[in-house]
Amino acid sequence: MLYFAYCTLLDTEEMQKYCPAAEPTEVASLAGYRVSFSRYAQGASGGGCDLQETADEEVLGLLYSLSQEVLRDLDSIAGVDKGYYKRIDVKVATEAGSTREAITYVVPDPMGPFQPSPAYTRPILAGAKVLELPAAYVEKLEGIIWSAQEPAQ
Fold it and tell me: What are the CA-CA distances from residue 84 to residues 4, 57, 128, 143 (Å)?
C-alpha cells in the first residue's frame, strides 16, 4: 500500500516517530488540490492539514510504502475512528512520470480554518526542504502556513 504524505509526514523523521516501519519511496504530485488547514469539528480547537480542491494547483508529497499493520497504526494516529480524518484514494504522478495509486487523509467535514502552531508546521517545511521540493512550491507552502497562523481579525 502506498501512502501520500503532504503535510507533517513529509518529514521522514516525523514519520519514523509514529510508524518506524514506513518506507519512504519517492516524491509525487497530486493535481487539483492545495494544502489547507481545517478544524475537525464545530467549536473544536483541534484540526490539521487538509486538502482543498482547486482547478489549477497541485500538492507535492512523499510516497511511503506501508504494510497493512502500519496502515492500521496510521489510521489510529490520524484519528480515523474519531472522525478527525478519513482515508481517501488518490492518483499521483511521480517525478519519473508514472501514475501511482495511493491513499491519503483529509478532514471529512471541515468546519472552517484551523490555526496551526509553529510546532505543528515545522515538520512540513523541514520535510519540503530536505526533499528539495521546488523553491516556488516551498514558498507557496510557507505562504499558506504563515497566513493560517495569523489570528483571525
Answer: 18, 25, 24, 25
| Dihedral over Cα of 63, 58, 122, 140: its sign | positive
What are the CB-based long-range contacts (under 8 Å, 24+) for 79-85? 79/40, 80/105, 83/40, 83/41, 83/108, 83/109, 84/40, 84/46, 84/48, 85/48
Provide the pLDDT for residue 151.
61
3-state secondary structure of 145: helix
- Decide: residue 43, CB within 10 A, 0-12 exposed, 13-18 middle, 19+ buried: exposed
Q: How high is the pLDDT of residue 40?
A: 80
Q: Please report, for residues 33, 42, 84, 117, the alpha-carbon distance to residue 131 in angstroms, rounded to integers and kept in the order given.
A: 20, 35, 27, 22
Region 6-35: what's the mean pLDDT?
96
Give Dmax (Cα) for the chain. Answer: 45
CA distance 107 to 65: 22
Long-range contacts of 73-79 (CB under 8 A, 24+ apart): 73/18, 73/19, 74/3, 74/18, 74/19, 74/22, 77/18, 77/19, 78/105, 79/40
